[in-house]
Design brief:
Layout (H helix, E strand, L loop, with lengths): L1 H19 L3 H16 L2 H28 L1 H4 L4 H28 L3 H6 L4 H31 L8 H28 L6 H9 L17 H5 L2 H14 L5 H32 L8
Helix pairs in contact: 2-7, 3-5, 3-7, 5-7, 5-8, 5-9, 5-11, 8-9, 8-11, 8-12, 11-12
């Protein structure tokens, strides 16, 4: 009898410890699930590479023409292609996060995940890792195509590129986290947000033109978005050959605020979905 009680107590303690701690094993299991989905589906892999490649060819040819007819752009080789590649980091970072989450909704698996030991923070962490995997699959081949066809090597930016990437991916994740919360609360009726929200933000972040180009009333809005600082920093690096550390710091600080707001919003929407019982009604 005493041995049975001790085993029960040990099992209860193990269960409580398992619930209270962040588990990298559970994060890894979720990442592995999505890796198997990608690996076993060539249409998914093709789609990841297809759109960045189309963008590269379109804007690369535009830049080729501009370089031949404009002294300014001729002295700033790679400006358009660099902007396109970096904007794809923002877009694909958010969409990779959101699409991985949509996979769970489409398969009606989100209710199972919420009832499993998987914690919401672990779910978000796994979606971030999946987003990085999808981004690498899409962007690395395209960056090599840019070198081969247009003689533009974005990797030549070195450590500056890492800071650009960090700030853009953080913004993409912030948007993705909010969209995930909205999908939990509203269900598949809000699916279009996963496709459209980031494209509404991109024009204001001044990907291909300086902030001064915007109407004066939109400029404060642009400076409230971290990607604006990244693209201004990119132009400073490619045109003026200088690294604007102040822009990168400002972008990172704003990203921390946005990530905090997004995470709080996600938990609030998740709790609202639990109260309303909408977790089990998601899916196609």
């Amino acid at each position: 009898m005493t041995a049975t009680l001790q085993r029960d107590r040990h099992r209860d303690r193990a269960a409580r410890a398992n619930k209270s701690g962040f588990s990298f094993a559970r994060v890894g299991a979720m990442v592995l699930r999505h890796w198997y989905l990608l690996r076993s589906s060539w249409p998914r892999l093709l789609e990841i590479v297809y759109w960045p490649a189309v963008n590269l060819l379109t804007w690369g040819l535009v830049q080729t023409y501009v370089q031949q007819h404009s002294g300014f752009f001729a002295n700033a080789a790679g400006l358009i292609i660099g902007a396109m590649l970096l904007s794809d980091v923002l877009i694909r970072g958010q969409q990779g996060f959101s699409f991985a989450f949509l996979e769970e909704l489409w398969s009606r698996n989100i209710g199972n995940l919420m009832m499993s030991p998987l914690r919401p923070s672990e779910l978000l962490a796994s979606l971030m890792v999946v987003s990085l995997i999808r981004l690498a699959i899409g962007m690395i081949p395209v960056s090599l195509v840019a070198i081969a066809l247009f003689d533009f090597n974005i990797w030549g930016l070195g450590g500056v590129l890492a800071l650009f990437f960090l700030n853009l991916i953080l913004t993409g994740w912030s948007v993705g986290i909010v969209i995930a919360g909205v999908l939990l609360r509203q269900g598949m009726a809000a699916e279009s947000f996963a496709w459209t929200v980031i494209f509404a933000v991109v024009p204001i972040t001044c990907v291909y033109y300086p902030v001064a180009t915007l109407p004066s009333f939109l400029q404060p809005v642009a400076w409230s978005l971290p990607p604006t600082y990244v693209f201004e920093g990119m132009r400073a690096a490619l045109i003026g050959h200088q690294f604007r550390s102040d822009l990168m710091l400002d972008a990172f600080l704003i990203n921390l605020v946005l990530m905090g707001i997004a995470t709080v919003g996600f938990y609030w929407l998740l709790n609202s979905a639990r109260r309303q019982g909408s977790l089990l009604s998601t899916g196609e």
